[in-house]
Amino acid sequence: MAACADVLEGLAAIGSLGRVAVEIRVGSVEEKQAHGRIGRGCAMRVKGRWAHGARRGSKGSACPPGGQKYRHQTSVTFHCEISRLRQPDIQAIFAPQGCCEDSMADPKPVLVVGAGPVGLVAAAELIRHGVPVTVLEEGTELSGEMRGSTFHAPTLDMLAEYGAAERMVEQGFVAPLMQYRRRDHGVIATFDFGVLADVTRHPFRLQCEQFKLTRILHDILKDKPGFSIRFGAKVAAVADEGSHVVATLADGTRIEGSHVIGCDGAHSAVRKSAGLSFEGFTWPERFLVLSTPFDFRSIIPDLADVSYYADPEEWFFLLRVPGGEPGGLWRAMFPTSAELSDEEILSPEFARARFARIKAGRDDYPTRHRTLYRVHQRVAETFRKGRILLAGDAAHINNPLGGMGLNGGVHDAVNLGAKLARVWHGDAEDVLDLYDRQRRGVTVEHVQRQTITNKQNLEAKEPEAQAAFRDRMAEAASDPAKAHAYLLQVSMINSLRRAAEID
Ligand SMILES: Cc1cc2nc3c(=O)[nH]c(=O)nc-3n(C[C@H](O)[C@H](O)[C@H](O)COP(=O)(O)OP(=O)(O)OC[C@H]3O[C@@H](n4cnc5c(N)ncnc54)[C@H](O)[C@@H]3O)c2cc1C
After folding, report:
1. CA dihedral 298, 300, 302, 305 (to 10 degrees)
2. DSSP for 76-140?
3. Which of 213, 224, 378, 464 lies deepest, with the highest CB count within 10 Å?
4. Is any atom of ligand 1 closer than 6 Å to the C-beta of 262?
5. For the segment 364-409, what is each residue's pLDDT rounded down to a tens digit?
6. Domain boundary assignment for the chain
7. Which atom of ligand 1 is least distant from the CA of 234?
């Protein structure tokens, strides 16, 4: 192992281009694995040749031919030319992985079910660590649904590692402020995300439709070695076969992988196939999302792009997103009564009546979208069952107040992708339990709790509870230290810090 660490350090010093000769001792079991690692790097990324008479490593010959015989020698020198490699690739080559004879004979990709934002982030993280990935997506193309549109600071920091954050920022709206307001439009509190500049490279909320992220990631990944995606591939079942997994598509096709990550959304076939329960509850009211190009800033002074209205009867929120319109689209979200039918709620009359409640005397806003959806608070009983893993909505769902569902899913994918890469390269599988403890732990402790609290704060019926919320927010917004602490919480930085503490 020491030899490998030295190799890594040496390569880090060389940088992205260079020539290196490395001596790896192969006298112990541990060091034989080091031998395998080099073999893999040779096959996958590096033009190289093995000393002691081995032939030049080439694509498709993972181990040096005759690799077996080196097991009994004391050392082997590996000469490789590092070309077009970035630091993450170099680490991938020398990261731990299994014995070359077994794992390299038939290296299986990780199967990612679902090309939503979480599936593609998981794929990006795995590819970054040199792990081949096959994404299986039911749709014939990437989804164009608007859905989630809020990206928090640490999520953008993560996406920046794949080169995706900058492109998201170009295509989205940077929202530096978040407001809480009363039903009469009086401002309760305005928070400035700029105070987080000491802990993030993106001290703001980004309002950008999630389908833009999937397109950007797909564009980044599509030509990467090891990445493949199959559209029209609906996974019906997955099975853990002990040494690998098998995903069976609806048409009966069987696809093998080393592990499978279910990123297939709230109705996850992977979760159901693994027999995992999805515990929690469903809110009685459904949420109606209406969008309009009408600019509410023209009638509501100083309206922030992210504004939550607290009211015991008629809470709602307003968010501005690009929406493909010159000035953007405003999305308004309202709870609706359980007694009303879907048809009533989705009628143009209902939309007008809801819009009329935003500002008295106006109901004539052009409507671009009307979406009604049921809201749940549910968490899978575990995020890991053997080689079957869950992330994103497949693992947890929550109400949209605070924009934590999609962000939490991205955090899962990054955490899991890095750990699974270690396992794929040869580390013990136990680290996947840590993924479950960390991500399921903070999903329950932070995301579920915070989103339920957010809803309760906005809809509080008791005057004392309403006043307490208003006072708390006004005080926090007026004190930089308290504002900082509050924004660490709502930006999900605290949940990530907490996850990192769990061992
Ligand atoms: C109206 C609405 C508004 C929202 N607003 C926000 C917000 O502002 N902020 C926020 O953070 N979150 C928001 N969310 C939640 C957010 O959209 C989800 O958390 C997010 O989409 C989860 O991403 P995902 O990749 O886990 O799942 P999905 O986006 O659901 O992607 C799952 C993918 O898997 C594919 N798939 C499904 N089944 C199979 C199968 N059997 N085989 C193969 N492929 C399959 C699907 O086609 C899809 O491409 C909102 C959700 C809704 C509905």
Report:
1. -80
2. EEEEEEE-S--HHHHHHHHS----HHHHTTSPPPEEEE--SHHHHHHHHHHHHTT--EEEE-SSS
3. 213
4. no
5. 899 999 999 999 999 999 999 999 999 999 999 999 999 999 999 9
6. 110-501
7. 42
Q: Treating both helix axes as pointing N-terminal to C-terminal, what angle do 117-128 and 405-424 enclose, rounded to 10 degrees?
A: 30
What the block records as the tokens of 269 is: 């076939």
- Tokens linked to 438: 């960390």
- Ligand 1 neighbourhood includes 402 CB (under 6 angstroms): no
**Which amino acid appears at position 403 of this protein?**
G
Q: How far apart are CA 242 and CA 386, in angstroms?
A: 8
Indicate the burial class of 418 (C-beta count within 10 angstroms; 0-12, 13-18, 19 or more): middle
Closest CA to 225 of 128, 296, 364, 316: 128
Half-sphere exposure of 38 (CA within 13 A, CB side): 35
Model confidence over 225-269: pLDDT tens digits? 999 999 999 999 999 999 999 999 999 999 999 999 999 999 999
| Whole-angstrom distance, CA of residue 62 vs CA of residue 307 | 55
Unique residue bearing structure tokens 């999937």: 214
Stated pTM of the model: 0.82
Pair 297, 341: CB distance under 8 Å: no
- What is the residue with the minimal CA distance to atom 35 of ligand 1? 114
* Distance in Å from the first CA to the final CA of the chain: 23
Rounded-to-5 percentages of helix, strand, coil across the chain:
40, 25, 35
Pick the CATH number of 110-501 from 3.30.2290.10, 3.50.50.60, 3.40.50.720, 3.90.1170.30: 3.50.50.60
Cβ of 373 below 6 Å from ligand 1: yes
Closest-CA residue, ligand 1 atom 27, reads: 265
**Angle between the N-to-C axes of helices 153-160 and 405-424, in degrees from 0 to 180, rounded to the nearest 10:** 40
